[in-house]
Known about the structure:
The protein is α/β, with parallel strands linked by helices and about 400 residues long. Helices cover about 15% and strands about 40% of the residues. The chain has 3 helices and 28 strands. It has helices at about 1-10, 15-60, 65-80; strands at about 85-90, 95-105, 115-130, 135-140, 150, 155-160, 160-165, 175, 180, 185-190, 190-195, 230-235, 240, 245-250, 255-260, 260-265, 270, 275-280, 285-290, 295, 300-305, 315-320, 325-330, 335-340, 340-355, 365-375, 375-380, 400. Strands 14-16-19-22-25-23-20-17 form an 8-stranded parallel beta barrel. Helix 2 packs antiparallel against helix 3. The model is unreliable at about 20-25 (pLDDT under 50).
Amino acid sequence: MDLLRRFRENDRGAVAIVFAVALIPIMGLSGAAIDYTRATQAKSKLQAATDSAALAALTVKASTLSQRELAARTVFEANRPDDVMPSVTYAVGQKEAAVTATGEVSTSMLKVLQINDIGLRARAKAVRVYDGPPPCILTLNPSVASAIDMTGNTHFTGNGCVLHANSNANSAITVGGSATVSADGYCAVGTVVSGFTLSPPPENGCEVMEDPYKDLPVLASTTCDPNLKNISVQPNTSKTLGPGTYCGGLDLKGTVTFQKGLYVIKDGNLGIGSQADVTGSEVTFYFVGASTFDINGGARLELSASTEKEPFGGLLFIQDPTAPPGITKLNGNSNTVLKGAIYMPKSRVEVTGNGSFGVSSPFMPIIADTVKMSGSSVQKTDETSVNLPKPLPRSASGARLAE
């Protein structure tokens, strides 16, 4: 009996038993701290990888959505956590891209508590930012092929601007033959086709670029002035013309000075011959009906648009929105200086010229139904010296994270 009593009352080693029992939750807490720290670090790296991938999909210069997705995959794989093999989904479009990644981090100490892994999830959505260069050529036709046509011996330079076609056709922008073309970007709702490598690479499947002047006011009255019908200025003669509604056309082959104001051209064309010498400051030409302009090479032409913002500031040539389809011809040279935008939404604008055409024109974007370029020309979209009723739209310049 004494032996049993002594065994029961002997408490030596009790602390070791209590410690052994307490060690299990202590190890669990310590393991949780270690494993969750690893998981937090992996989660942070996984999120950074999805962020970078989503941004890469929209900022890479690519012609197809598959190329954009490839860029996202490449960037994600280069940045993902080394110890995580995640499952990743990509939803890539022209305007936005989303990347979602899920995975697990294997535990070490938490295995004691039967927790073998910690789940991870990261998601990023990027959207495009539009503050890039404005268009030096914007074509509005929604479906025609070769909406922007630069073939033959075209030599075109777009300084600080892009070429954009709203046409969804294959070959919406065509560059071929012995043409040389340089701009800050090439973008078509359909596709861009070039016989040589363009830099930067063209983009296909672009969104429609807004027509900035579709809501311009329509003139309330275009009644012909009986004193301004069938005006003709022959070679070796001079004339000063004032604002008004001109009917029957303007045939200019001599020296003409346009006074400041709005010139409405109706039932005839503005024709400027190769012998002409034509100048005008703060002028706007508004074409009604089938009227248009035809400017021949060789003429000395120096025209600048109105500096007053309303209603047509910065716009040099404007076609009435109710006009039927037509063809407008512009043949320029070193003596052709146009400071203002050309807005002919129902016309095919055909531009020819020599290598110095446009060099002296600080602002000459063309917004038209379609544009065909031949010869040599330079176009600029420096808006600092004009006062447009509405700014030109901007091209996509990058991307930002939306979530």
